[in-house]
From TrEMBL:
This is Uncharacterized protein. The keyword Membrane applies. It comes from the Eukaryota. Residues 54-80, 129-182 are annotated as: Disordered. Residues 129-144 have a biased composition (Polar residues). The chain crosses the membrane at residues 303-322, 342-366. Residues 151-162 have a biased composition (Low complexity). Keywords: Membrane, Transmembrane, Transmembrane helix.
């Protein structure tokens, strides 16, 4: 088979080649995944593990990504990672050339991982001219500044400025116009994509590529090296909704995005959130939380991995207590064996139920690990348990964007903080409650929190009423 050549008038052989022809450095990506796959084909069973379509998390395990540069591999040599053009040609020849022709094949997971590792090696030495904003030039000293300082400056009308700013007080926020705020929001949501991150994104959205936990981990590692989180929310959506190919002659199988096996691992969500925090992009950070630990698949995964084992253990304990009561009844002669066994079993179960109930209440209402984000009074315990990871990641966002001094917490302002407070309030969370922040006037803070809780509860009720509810066709919790 002859290698594919780039011709301006010819039709591209694959999605990766078509991207090469239209790529420009100022290209921007949307956060939404493609509306439909380019090709619906399935993967041969000889190339993939047979359980890849049923159990996603058994194919590979997601680990915490690091920013260390991987060593060169046999598939991609050190010469291939010296420049962008060489690596692009190597990926096109070794990864995507097998997806075209009369007998197309689907790349294996190892080949995709090696391609991402090669991009990581190139990203370690790539000139980050697009992601870095231009540094403002330092103003040059003017000889007239010394004369103006004696008279107090041009805006003081000749009166010297003798007041010194208090270092303990936070700086006053600068009033911005609504057009400036909207422009800043648009720039945050549509940040320019790094060229290497754009290549990795088009590798991931290729219809022949399966996004496994290991592939997702390597993608997050590349984003951490480039400090570009702009495509992470879109990849998190594709992780659960992208069709799985098993055989090129058959259509692709669409997975259930709400299945427990399609949930993002918590370590991957934390690593992706750290990339958004390092890039100082709050809208993308909140989108990452929504698409990782804020999905129905995450709740079902918690049910499968935590509730079912806990239910099995708590159901087996009474059987063990019954056997213990039967054994202890043999060492007495005052009552009949059945009566003594009944007394012992009732005593054991009373102690087990009372202490277990108190332990569950203490476990579900424990808040010593909460720093700035707390639950609004009235949120059900089951919702708190399902959304605990969402609250923890929101707490990390509030700690990263706010003041580090405890006495300054709650004094932040700006459109980002207004968005964060509204986003958390709709989900039943409150930032900087009077119980969490020390040294505040309790009466005024309690009144403000009560009003905020009422507004948040009303907003949550509006969201629930806005969703159409079909009572006739009820779906099962674990339906596939």
């Amino acid at each position: 088979m002859q290698p594919a050549t780039r011709r301006p008038a010819a039709r591209a052989l694959c999605l990766f080649c078509s991207f090469r022809g239209v790529y420009t450095p100022s290209r921007r990506l949307s956060f939404r995944p493609p509306s439909r796959p380019i090709a619906r084909r399935s993967q041969p069973h000889s190339l993939v593990h047979p359980t890849i379509a049923s159990l996603r998390h058994q194919s590979s395990t997601a680990s915490k990504p690091d920013t260390t540069t991987p060593p060169p591999t046999s598939l991609y040599s050190a010469e291939d990672t010296r420049s962008y053009d060489r690596l692009f040609k190597a990926i096109n020849d070794k990864l995507f050339l097998q997806t075209v022709g009369d007998n197309p094949k689907i790349p294996r997971e190892t080949e995709v991982i090696l391609a991402f590792k090669a991009l990581q090696r190139l990203a370690a030495n790539y000139p980050a001219t697009i992601t870095k904003s231009p540094t403002p030039k330092t103003p040059q000293t003017n000889p007239n500044d010394a004369i103006l300082s004696l008279t107090g400056g041009p805006a003081t009308n000749g009166t010297p400025n003798t007041q010194k700013p208090d270092k303990n007080l936070p700086p006053e926020p600068v009033q911005q116009s609504q057009e400036t705020i909207e422009a800043e929001k648009t720039a945050k949501l549509n940040a320019p994509v790094h060229p290497l991150m754009d290549v990795a994104y088009h590798i991931a959205i290729h219809p022949f590529i399966f996004i496994s936990p290991k592939v997702l981990t390597e993608y997050i590692k590349l984003a951490a090296l480039l400090k570009d989180p702009s495509t992470l929310p879109s990849i998190f959506k594709l992780y659960a909704t992208k069709p799985v190919l098993q055989d090129p002659s058959k259509p692709a199988k669409r997975p259930n995005p709400n299945a427990a096996k399609n949930a993002i691992a918590y370590d991957s969500a934390k690593a992706a959130l750290q990339v958004a925090i390092a890039a100082k992009n709050m809208p993308i950070a909140l989108d990452i939380i929504d698409n990782s630990v804020g999905t129905k698949a995450w709740c079902r995964r918690k049910l499968v991995t935590q509730v079912l084992p806990f239910t099995a253990v708590t159901s087996a304990i009474p059987l063990g207590l019954y056997k213990v009561a039967d054994w202890l009844a043999q060492f007495q002669e005052q009552w009949l064996h059945e009566k003594a066994m009944t007394y012992a079993f009732v005593g054991f179960m009373t102690y087990y139920i009372c202490t277990g109930s108190l332990g569950m209440i203490a476990l579900l209402t424990w808040n010593d690990h909460m720093i700035r984000v707390n639950w609004i009074p009235g949120v059900y315990l089951r919702e708190r348990w399902f959304m605990e990871e969402q609250r923890a990641l929101t707490d990390r966002v509030a700690m990263a964007w706010g003041y580090q001094e405890p006495f300054k917490r709650g004094l932040e302002s700006g459109w980002e903080w207004e968005m964060l407070r509204h986003w958390a309030g709709v989900r039943g969370m409150i930032i900087d409650s009077s119980e969490m922040v020390e040294g505040r006037e309790m009466s005024a803070e309690k009144d403000a929190e009560r009003l905020a809780a009422q507004e948040s509860i009303l907003a949550r009720m509006k969201l629930k009423l806005a969703k159409p509810s079909d009572k006739k066709a009820k779906k099962r919790l674990f339906s596939t």
